[in-house]
Fold this sequence. Notes:
Layout: E1 4-8, H1 13-27, E2 46-52, E3 55-67, E4 70-78, H2 87-101, E5 106-112, H3 116-121, E6 125-126, E7 131-133, E8 136-144
Parallel strand pairs: 4-5
Antiparallel strand pairs: 1-2, 2-3, 3-4, 5-8, 6-8, 7-8
The protein binds coenzyme A (COA).
Coenzyme A (COA) binds near residues 76, 77, 85, 88 and 111.
Amino acid sequence: MGPVVHQIGTKSPLYEKSLVIRNDVLRKPLNLNIYDEDLSDEEDQIHFVLEKDNQILGTVSLVANYKKNTGKLRQMATIAEVRGDGYGRMLVQKLEKYAVNNEMKTVVLHARHYAIGFYQKMGYTISSETFEEVGIKHVVMQKELH
Length: 146
Ligand SMILES: CC(C)(COP(=O)(O)OP(=O)(O)OC[C@H]1O[C@@H](n2cnc3c(N)ncnc32)[C@H](O)[C@@H]1OP(=O)(O)O)[C@@H](O)C(=O)NCCC(=O)NCCS
């Protein structure tokens, strides 16, 4: 089966699989464990997972209407084995399509410094000074949706 991006909620079995990827990609390298976190806010968020050949290869989440007409992209990750294969782009595009269809005009995010180039390719621009979060340098990036 070709790659498909599913839009899911926290009750979906695919959500548990997305947590495994988020833990491997975004937490373990920082010696953190996602299962120690209070994830209850995520019930109100929109989660996207990319599935190919019955495997989950990546995920991203959206805080819809985080501010007026603005959504926040968070928890963007694809597994190391498939990076550069276009799945990150597919996830961002699906999130943006959802945002446009749900009255959002802007998407903002906190980019880890080593992911800035990826988001620039997706059309995001830097809109803050550098700051530190979870011990990593970040910048705010944003994109106006059309
Ligand atoms: C950042 C990340 C999500 C990108 O996902 P991906 O599946 O590799 O993305 P794609 O294959 O769709 O890449 C799209 C384009 O961005 C480029 N790109 C991907 N990662 C990049 C990076 N870190 N820096 C610069 N360019 C990057 C790709 O080369 C590709 O370019 P092209 O259109 O010219 O071919 C992935 O590398 C990842 O999970 N990294 C670790 C976790 C992370 O940093 N998450 C973001 C935290 S803010």
